[in-house]
Design brief:
Elements lengths: L1 H58 L8 E4 L10 E4 L5 E7 L5 H4 L9 E9 L2 E8 L4 E7 L2 E7 L1 H4 L2 E7 L9 E2 L2 E2 H16 L8 E3 L4 E6 L3 E7 L9 H10 L4 E8 L12 E5 L7 H17 L3 E6 L4 H5 L4 E8 L3 H7 L2 H23 L1
Parallel strand pairs: 8-13, 8-14, 14-17, 15-16
Antiparallel strand pairs: 1-7, 2-3, 3-5, 4-5, 6-7, 6-11, 9-10, 12-13, 15-17
The structure holds zinc ion.
């Protein structure tokens, strides 16, 4: 009797185990299938673009000369298309209003896709969004011809004769120093926005224009096209590594970071004045030369007290930047008078002017 019961129990256990194993197997199988599906979805648009190449080459021989060629539907003009570049310069978002999920079946997209690592397409109620992720740092230009929109990706070093990175310190959750209800991150950004305005080239009507979310271009006499890139143009958190990696990957010729000083305790004090931090370990001496020029220009324009050049090698961005780097401490937020001056438009304007002319002058000097 006992033996029989044991046999039955063993049988039940065996069936249970088999069922469990098969359920697990089916479950795992379907999740593998789901993952496969997701991968296909992500890759599908790149594959589709590749498939369309032959057809497009027949219809529009120019298509393959460009990275991407889009035909605009009749009701959409190419000026309705907005292109945004992510801050790290490796990703782009192209938003086309009023198109559906079947858009690319009706209006095929083609191009050589060089440098594009991945491309996704999402259609929502008010249009479609193409997201590109690239294999490095690029700038995008667009050319409009008839109902065609051509997008091209270029390495910044092939477009610009020189490059600057301007960094507004702190941002987002990181306020930097705070005093009298004013946060350092906001002053830094206000000054950098004014630098951006100064560097911004006159808008010209051209067939080909760069997507200039993230940088401005100006012509420097004797040098050529200078691209100025910004680590942030809004109040947001940007990691120190990201800031330096942008400068190093471009690679930029000069890196300037804007900060506001504070006493060590953060308490109100009469201490005031302008300092610039530089990289002592830069054996070429260029970080010191550049920083010294930035300090001279700031002191001359702001009429502030000199706190001198300060060794800044313990600061991450100074230590890791591969080009001449300067970190300007405009003044002390903990000094009531200096803080009020720094919060004013006129003073910020002077800061921006001094920094722009220091960068341009130093570029001229090293290019000789
Ligand atoms: Zn700071």
């Amino acid at each position: 009797m006992e033996q029989k019961l044991l046999n039955i129990m063993a049988g039940v256990m065996c069936i249970f185990t088999l069922t469990l194993v098969s359920v697990l197997y089916i479950f795992q199988g379907s999740s593998i299938l789901a993952r496969q599906q997701a991968r296909d979805d992500l890759g599908s648009i790149l594959a589709m673009v590749a498939k369309q190449r032959d057809q497009m080459t027949k219809d529009d021989p120019q298509a393959l000369a460009h990275h991407l060629s889009l035909t605009m539907p009749a009701q959409v003009s190419s000026s309705d298309v907005t292109i945004r570049q992510e801050d790290d310069l490796t990703r782009f978002q192209i938003r086309i209003p009023g198109i559906s999920s079947s858009y690319f079946l009706d209006y095929p997209m083609a191009g050589n896709c060089k440098g594009i690592r991945d491309m996704t397409y999402v259609a929502s109620g008010d249009g479609g969004i193409i997201e590109l992720s690239c294999d490095g740092v690029y700038v995008m230009s667009k050319t409009v011809k008839g109902d065609h929109l051509y997008l091209d990706l270029d390495r910044p070093s092939s477009v610009f004769d020189a490059m600057f990175v301007v960094d507004a310190g702190h941002g987002g959750k990181d306020s930097g120093a705070i005093a009298g209800g004013i946060e350092e991150k906001d002053l830094n950004l206000a000054i950098v926005q004014k630098i951006r305005e100064k560097f911004k080239a006159e808008a010209e009507e051209k067939d080909t224009t760069y997507v200039e979310d993230q940088f401005s271009v100006f012509e420097e006499k004797g040098i050529g096209k200078v691209g100025v890139f910004y680590t942030r143009c809004s109040d947001k958190s940007v990691g120190l590594e990201e800031r330096v990696s942008l400068a190093n990957r471009l690679p930029a010729d000069l890196f300037l970071s804007v900060h506001i000083n504070s006493t060590a305790t953060g308490r109100a004090s009469t201490i005031n004045g302008t300092a610039v931090m530089y990289k002592v370990s830069d054996s070429s001496g260029r970080s010191k030369e550049f920083s010294s020029l930035v300090l001279d220009k700031l002191l001359a324009d702001l009429k502030s007290k000199s706190k001198g050049l300060i060794a800044g090698d313990e600061i991450y961005i100074i230590r890791t930047a591969n080009m001449p780097v300067a970190l300007a401490e405009i003044g002390f937020i903990t000094n009531d008078e200096e803080r009020k001056r720094m919060a004013s438009d006129g003073y910020q304007e002077k800061c921006a002017g001094a920094i722009c002319s220091a960068m341009e002058e130093y570029l001229q000097k090293v290019h000789k």
